[in-house]
């Protein structure tokens, strides 16, 4: 089975972007010929679509495995972005969100990893009908490489529920290693050790 391939384009930007600024950073070519457009930042239109996705009660996986309903659906995108958050998205040919990866400056909550003071957290989302289509692995690697160039020397961590099996499979494939329990016993902290 062919896999999606992402081609980078020259990036003329530095972090942080202005609120609602969106820069093209690549194109993902799907095996069936469709194209998804990779962007850094979200336009106001795409931020509104993120809110809609976050409030979608039909998306049981998103509601069960993320806090996006509170973060983007009920909360303010502007307030979230002002905390130093960097969204990367895949946009389909109909201008819909296919996937989102975001990073932000948040210290690692595990005391065993205090060796680095430059920590960022990361989150990964694929939205129907693109979930399960093989886009997240190449897109996530692309985002991590792009972010490494834009914000060198930063360490990356994430928290997830132990029951998020598909997420944990992706994180492990990307080079994240389980470092133990988070604030709740059912949550795990994973740290990126290699790409």
CATH fold description: Aminopeptidase
Order of strands in the sheet with most strands? 1-2-3-4-5-6-7-9-8
Looking at the overall shape, the CATH architecture is: 3-Layer(aba) Sandwich
How many domains is the backbone divided into? Answer: 1
Q: Could you name the CATH class?
A: Alpha Beta
Shape call? globular
| Poorly predicted regions | none
Order of helices and strands: EEEHHHHEEEHEHEE
Number of helices: 6
- Strand pairing plus helix content: what structural class? alpha+beta
Gyration radius, in Å: 16 Å
Helix content: 25-40%
Assign the CATH superfamily. Answer: Gcn5-related N-acetyltransferase (GNAT)
Topology:
Layout: E1 5-8, E2 23-29, E3 35-40, H1 44-54, H2 60-65, H3 68-74, H4 77-82, E4 85-91, E5 97-105, E6 119-126, H5 136-150, E7 155-161, H6 165-174, E8 176-181, E9 187-192
What does this structure look like?
The protein contains six helices and nine strands; from the N terminus they run E-E-E-H-H-H-H-E-E-E-H-E-H-E-E. By secondary structure, the chain is of the alpha+beta class. It has a single domain, classed as Aminopeptidase. A nine-stranded mixed β-sheet has the order 1-2-3-4-5-6-7-9-8, sandwiched between helices.
Could you name the key traits of this structure?
nine-stranded mixed β-sheet; alpha+beta; about 30% strand; about 200 residues; Aminopeptidase; globular; 6 helices; about 30% helix; 9 strands; single chain
Brief characterization of the structure:
The chain contains six helices and nine strands. The chain is an alpha+beta fold. The mean pLDDT is 91.
């Amino acid at each position: 089975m062919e896999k999606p391939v992402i081609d980078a384009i020259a990036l003329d930007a530095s972090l942080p972007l202005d609120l609602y600024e969106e820069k093209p950073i690549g194109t993902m070519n799907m095996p069936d010929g469709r194209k998804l457009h990779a962007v850094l930042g979200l336009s106001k239109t795409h931020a509104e679509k993120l809110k809609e996705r976050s409030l979608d009660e039909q998306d049981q996986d998103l509601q069960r495995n993320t806090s996006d309903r509170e973060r983007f659906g009920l909360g303010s995108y502007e307030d979230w972005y002002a905390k130093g958050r960097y969204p990367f998205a895949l946009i389909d040919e109909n201008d819909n969100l296919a996937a989102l990866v975001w990073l932000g400056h948040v210290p690692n909550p595990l005391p065993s990893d205090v060796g680095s003071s430059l920590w960022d957290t990361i989150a990964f989302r694929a939205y129907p009908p693109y979930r399960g289509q093989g886009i997240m692995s190449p897109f996530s690697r692309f985002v991590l490489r792009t972010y490494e160039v834009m914000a060198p020397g930063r360490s990356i961590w994430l928290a997830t529920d132990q029951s998020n099996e598909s997420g944990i499979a992706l994180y492990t494939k990307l080079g994240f290693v389980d470092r133990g329990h988070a604030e709740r016993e059912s949550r795990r902290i994973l740290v990126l050790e290699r790409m």
